[in-house]
Design brief:
The chain is an alpha/beta fold. Helices cover 35% and strands 26% of the residues. The protein has one domain: Rossmann fold (3-Layer(aba) Sandwich). The strands form two sheets. Strands 6-7-8-3-9-10 form a six-stranded mixed beta sheet, sandwiched between helices. Strands 2-1-4-5 form a four-stranded antiparallel beta sheet, with helices on one face. It binds adenosine-5'-diphosphate (ADP) and magnesium ion. Magnesium ion binds at residues 50-51. InterPro entries: AAA+_ATPase, ABC_transp_ATP-bind, ABC_transporter-like_ATP-bd, ABC_transporter-like_CS, P-loop_NTPase. It holds the Pfam family ABC_tran.
């Protein structure tokens, strides 16, 4: 299998720096590598920069220093089309699934928006939607519902399902279960593991919850006081 590596190399982030201002350093010289089919767990107290690091790895924000490398190619040097491909290959999933869906549209609308990006034929779209619902364990009826008619767990399943339609190589999961009831949290974590086993997706799992990180991750880093310390290698 072709090995696609996603790497953070000596990444530092400062907010509010300018010509005459030093700004605030969030973290300094952070390095780690993501691998297909595996989970890197990023833990640490709140406010230490976990989400910032996640957004940088997903290409949504730039580091002040250092580089994000996909197969050795720096994100900062990518042309527009290459960057668009990167954004397709590396997806991000957030804490609150209600933010992921337009409250005024039925679920099928939000799903079809993603499918349109893929330029697939109508029959192919229908087929991949059905397969996706099977994967995430929801009945086809949910397509006709509005987000408010679904539970947090169901919506988080759908948020994942919509990402899976894009067949990403990596997903940055930023506190994916923190907004859910404890019983539902475990279901989502098991679903994430199943999907990873079946599709070989690499995860950067961000959580302040050590139990979640330990359960899910092959390798673990702790972001604290501006530094990343490896806890499990
Ligand atoms: P965590 O996810 O670990 O809770 P964050 O990455 O959300 O941490 O935030 C880390 C620090 O960076 C916080 O002190 C936060 O206030 C600051 N921060 C985050 N985003 C910005 C921004 N856009 N501008 C300025 N400061 C920010
Ligand atoms: Mg955060």
């Amino acid at each position: 299998m072709f090995f696609v590596s996603l790497k953070a190399e000596n990444i530092s982030k400062r907010y509010g720096s300018g010509l005459l201002r030093e700004g605030k350093c969030i973290f300094r010289e952070v390095s780690f590598e993501l691998e297909p089919g595996k989970t890197f767990g990023l833990m640490g107290p709140s406010g230490e920069g976990k989400s910032t690091l996640g957004r940088i790895i997903a290409g949504l924000e730039s580091p002040t220093d250092g580089a994000v490398l996909l197969n050795g190619n720096p994100l900062s040097g990518m042309k527009k089309a290459e960057y668009a491909a990167f954004r397709h290959r590396v997806q991000m999933m957030f804490q609150d699934p209600t933010d992921s869906f337009n409250p005024r549209k039925r679920i099928e609308h939000s799903i079809s928006e993603v499918l349109k990006l893929l330029n697939n034929q109508e029959t192919k779209r229908l087929q991949s939607t059905k397969e996706m619902l099977k994967t995430i364990g929801l009945p086809e009826e949910v397509l006709a519902r509005y987000p408010a008619q679904l539970s947090g767990g169901q919506l988080q399943r759908l948020a994942l399902g919509r990402i899976l339609l894009l067949e990403p190589e990596y997903i940055v999961l930023d506190e994916p279960t923190s907004a859910l009831d404890v019983s539902v949290q475990a279901q989502i974590l098991h679903l994430l593991k199943k999907v990873q086993d079946e599709q070989g997706i690499g995860y950067l799992l961000i959580s302040h919850d050590e139990a979640v990180i330990r359960f899910m991750s092959e390798r673990i880093g702790m972001l604290k006081k501006g530094k990343l310390d490896m806890i499990r290698t």
